[in-house]
Design brief:
704 residues, Immunoglobulin-like, six-stranded mixed sheet, binds 2-acetamido-2-deoxy-beta-D-glucopyranose
Length: 704
């Protein structure tokens, strides 16, 4: 039943890209032709085949039909790729007298966006017979009417078109009248009857005629009307309209009550001139006539709403009667002039409301259809964008436009747009309408995490318990969702040849860095580790930072005395000659502290002494000096205990025993220290002498 008619080569328009970066095409034009009045579900055309589309593509592209207007005359069977009848199509209500009658629809496919235009032509079926407005036409004709006078007869109506419409009038043969058929400018036909021989009321006062109207359909349909002619006495004259036809024009938006035009008829009978009443002779079903005639004045007023788009003109048969009921006829053609009274209508044929921020320039955001019911300039529409946004409007096909990106989008700067579309027609004054589209820009992982600092400096006191948290590092990512979910890692660059994980750990989710090790300031004063933040995008993005951990000293080491050396039971003695002056430098206690700062700042004090009055220790330098003249009474053997303290909190100390011999000669010293050595269990004489020799060397050294 469907007849495919391709008109010329298919028109292919490239209309750029859908949000998913795929190429899209807009192509047209398929034309099907079907008879009206087909049953629901009947086949119209195989679009899949005729457009060369795969059925799977129809399904994946969510193929759908976009039909302007309120009737969804046809539907798409996605599984077969067929267009079928969805609603009874009555050609006469769709197009009235317009021929050929067709409507256009679009098939919209998504991913990628494709647009196909299909025109369906509706063929007329001879489903209407010509119908006359009344069953009878009553004519009153004076017997004095000259031959050759013509009488306008009511036309029959047949809503079908072409050959199915009214083709021919015929009048049953009679002796007085012959039929004349005329064609109007619009191609329709109307009948007139001409008097061909004089009437004589005294012979025959009434004549009955039969007028038939036939269409050219197969089978033919026809309608008839009876014409009753009453022959009037020679003295009676029918009113005669001043014109055989009238023409008027009216704007479709005139106010109710406005006088559109005025007709008048004259009656030649004396005394009753102007005493004429006027009527419309409507077709029976034409109760929707938006005009009314004043029976006395012949003024025609608008009474109901006019709409150029559905009824561009009206043809009205007029009748004028005098007081005896004698009638004359004429007709009136009223043309309705278009006024810009319909605003454009913006509809979204395809719109997801979302676009990815990495969409290339020219990506299609929406497919928009704009309709305006007015005709001519009043129906010509321009679609524009209101604000200065990174989008553009492109004309696509028929009354379709695409909204495309004009700049690269960045969700982190602008995550939502309100796009105001404005459609304006070219009427005077123009009418416009607006539509606001809310567009959401979807995230792409285009930002790496950023640490709050490039270098984190932190300090920890040595001897920390393992497991304490050092610090929390933090990175931010302006992306959204998974793309902004940050995980933290240590970059293993090794510390002293050990993996970094021996010393540090990191909590992936929070960036907290716990210590796995107790640090020793005396071993390493500073650690540098590198950390990485990684987002959850696909692929993920990363950035690095450095954490510098300074180890703070604790006073965990006591001073160490380097001199005099404390060896087991051996005895070291410093010699002081009896001739030494006050302030004589006996020896110097040398000590170190491996801690640092205050913790290594040493002071010296004399803790115990055989004779406190004889020696002092320099608190800063550890020098032991005499503080009074040595006399013979002073014992040879002097024993001093020096305490070395650091300045830590609390402080730590070490003590050292310094033996001093007050003598002028070695033998004297030896005799004194012999038993001193016996105090100890150590009896190695050789060692004793060696040590003594060392003391003497040091004595000489200090003296120098
Ligand atoms: C868009 O319009 C809505 C509703 O009018 C409003 O709530 C929203 O803030 C607007 N958004 C932008 C980005 O202007
Ligand atoms: C981060 O460190 C890793 C490992 O050393 C390296 O491969 C990467 O290039 C670094 N990234 C940056 C952004 O410096």
């Amino acid at each position: 039943m469907g007849y495919l008619m391709r008109r010329g080569p298919p028109l292919i328009l490239r209309i750029s890209i859908l949000p998913f970066c795929l190429l899209a095409a807009v192509s047209g034009q398929i034309r099907y032709s079907i008879p009206e009045e087909m049953r629901k579900g009947l086949f119209v055309g195989d679009v899949a085949k005729d457009l060369g589309l795969d059925i799977r593509r129809l399904v994946s592209g969510r193929a759908r039909l976009v039909i302007d207007g309120e009737h969804q005359y046809v539907a798409l069977n996605q599984n077969k790729g067929h267009i079928v009848v969805n609603e009874r199509i009555d050609r006469e209500s769709l197009c009235a007298k317009k021929s050929p009658c067709s409507f256009t629809l679009e098939i919209v496919l998504e991913d990628p966006l494709e647009l196909f235009s299909i025109t369906i032509e509706i063929q007329d079926v001879n489903d209407h017979a010509p119908v006359f407005p009344e069953n009878e036409i009553n004519l009153e004709i004076s017997e004095s009417t000259p031959t050759g006078t013509v009488f306008l007869l009511d036309s029959a109506a047949d809503p079908d078109v072409g050959i199915n419409s009214l083709q021919r009038y015929s009048l049953k043969e009679n002796e007085h009248f012959v039929l004349k058929q005329h064609i109007r400018a619009d191609g329709s036909k109307y009948p007139e009857m001409m008097l061909q021989s004089n009437l004589d009321r005294e012979k025959e006062s009434k004549h009955t005629l039969i007028l038939t109207a036939a269409d050219g359909g197969e089978p033919q349909k026809s309608g008839t009307v009876k014409i009753l002619v009453s022959v009037l006495d020679a003295n009676d004259n029918a009113p005669i309209f001043t014109q055989t036809s009238y023409k008027a024009s009216v704007l479709e938006n005139v106010l109710p009550g406005t006088v559109v035009t005025k007709v008048s008829a004259e009656d030649a009978d004396q005394g009753y001139n102007g005493n004429v009443t006027y009527f419309f002779t409507h077709q029976k079903d034409d109760s929707s006539c938006p005009f009314e005639i004043n029976p006395n004045s012949g003024e025609i007023k608008r009474t109901a709403k006019l709409d150029y788009e559905s009824y561009p003109n009206y043809e009205i048969n007029l009748q004028a009667k005098d007081p005896w009921g004698v009638a004359g006829a004429s007709k009136l053609l009223i043309e309705v002039a278009d006024v810009n009274d319909n605003s454009p209508i913006i509809t979204m044929a395809s719109y997801s409301g979302k676009i990815s921020e990495d969409s290339p320039l020219g990506t299609v955001v929406a497919l928009i259809s704009v309709q305006d019911k007015d005709s001519g300039k009043n129906g010509q529409v321009r679609l524009t964008l209101e604000e200065n946004l990174p989008f553009n409007i492109k004309f696509s096909l028929r009354n379709y436009y695409t909204l495309v990106t004009d700049q690269i989008l960045d969700r982190e700067k602008h995550s939502k747009y309100n796009i105001t579309l404005s459609a304006t027609d070219e009427g005077i004054p123009p009418l416009s309408s607006k539509k606001v589209l809310g567009l959401e820009v979807t995230d792409v992982n285009d930002n790496a995490p950023a640490f709050t600092k490039g270098i984190y400096n932190t300090e920890i006191v040595e001897n920390n318990p393992p497991g304490v948290s050092l610090l929390q590092i933090y990175a931010t990512d302006p992306d959204l969702g998974q793309n902004a979910r940050i995980s933290y890692y240590l970059i293993d660059s090794g510390i002293n040849g050990n993996p970094v994980s021996k010393y540090f750990s990191i909590i992936t989710e929070s960036g907290v860095i716990p210590l796995l090790h107790s640090f020793d300031y005396e071993q390493l004063k500073e650690y540098r580790i590198r950390v990485q933040a990684q987002d959850g995008g696909s692929p993920p993005l990363r950035s690095n930072a450095t954490v510098i951990i300074g180890i703070q000293d604790q006073n965990d080491n006591p001073p160490q005395v380097l001199y005099p050396v404390q060896t087991g039971g051996s005895v070291v003695a410093e010699m002081v000659p009896r001739s030494a002056d006050v302030g004589y430098l006996v020896t110097k206690v040398v000590a170190v502290d491996v801690d640092s700062g205050q913790n290594a700042w040493l002071s010296y004090k004399l803790q115990k002494a055989t004779d406190r009055a004889l020696f002092e220790v320099g608190s800063q330098n550890g020098e032991i000096r005499t503080i009074c003249q040595v006399t013979d009474k002073d014992a040879v053997k002097q024993r001093l205990t020096v305490i070395v303290e650091d300045n830590g909190q609390p402080s730590r100390s070490a003590t050292v025993i310094v033996n001093v011999a007050v003598a002028d000669s070695f033998p004297e010293v030896l005799s004194e220290f012999a038993d001193f050595s016996h105090d100890k269990e150590y009896n190695d004489n050789l060692t004793f002498y060696l040590v003594l020799a060392l003391a003497v060397v040091s004595f000489l050294f200090i003296t120098c």
